[in-house]
Amino acid sequence: MIQIQQSAVDSSLFGPSSLSKSQEKIFEALLKSPKKYVYENKHQLLFEIVLRDRIVHSAVALNKSRVRFAIFRFSRCNEQFWIRNELGGFQLRKGVPPADAINDIFVNSHLYAFECATAIVIVFYKAVLDVIDQQTFNTLFSDLLLYDWHVDQDLGIRTKKGEDYLPGDCLYFKNPEFDPQTPQWQGENTIYLGDDLHYGHGIGIKTTAEIIAALNKKRKKSATKSAYLLPQTTRVGFTYLSKFASNLEHYRLPMNNKLITGTMGSATFLYW
Is 60 exceeded by the pLDDT of residue 264? Predict the structure, then answer.
């Protein structure tokens, strides 16, 4: 359910062909949600739809890239843009624009390796960069550190309980009886893409059942408890960030890069 101030919103709010197909799905998911989503104005709602759409596209782009999964001890980065610290995190080099450094992860992806939480944060930053202008992004995120869930406060990350899963949310699959020899598989952070598909760094794009099956293969030998999806969502600060997006007209037009889903055997493929 959606409200703008005190008025309920229906599917007629946006005119025909004013949203791309993937944006329409997000709008419909918000409308159909049992939770009430309240906005001060239409701009805030449109911004959330656009940013959620870019989160999904950024997740798929990272999946298609040549980045690798690695625990912190073996993480890698392009040292032209980042300094790898003693914890395995990536600190932005002085004098490097944050927008350039985030974009480089997708341009020179073969130079990077990191674990799943860092991947989620990178997806969030890239999506925000795609929606607000680079100068504003560089001002907001001038001292980037990519390490686990360490994030700039302006990203506005919040985790809440609930099962109102929407495309662009970060979800978490817990593996309660993981193999202690591989603690990196105690769970998996994913970006929910919609239609029961998730992007999990190190696992790929899979259904809910496939993510759980992949984690169950990483349990200790005596394990009896299955991995499961936690009833919670982790989201960026859509309302706060909407203040920094002055022109969303470009994103209101149907874009050519809409997602297409396909399957071959047990594998799922997404293209745009």
Answer: no
Q: Is 68 exposed, middle or buried (0-12, 13-18, 19+ CB in 10 A)?
A: middle
In contact, 56 and 47? CB cutoff 8 Å: no
* CA–CA distance, 51 with 53 (Å, rounded to integer): 5
174, containing H or E segment:
strand 170-174
Give residue 233's domain range: 2-271
Q: Is 56 helix (H, G, I), strand (E, B) or coil?
A: helix
Query: Looking at the 3D structure of the chain, how many domains does it have?
Result: 1
Q: Is residue 219 within 8 Å of residue 234, measured between CB atoms?
A: no
Q: Which pairing describes strands 90-92 and 158-161: parallel, antiparallel, or unpaired?
A: unpaired
Measured distance CA(127)–CA(70) in Å, rounded: 23
Q: What is the reported pLDDT for 6?
A: 83
CA–CA separation, 15 vs 55, rounded Å? 23
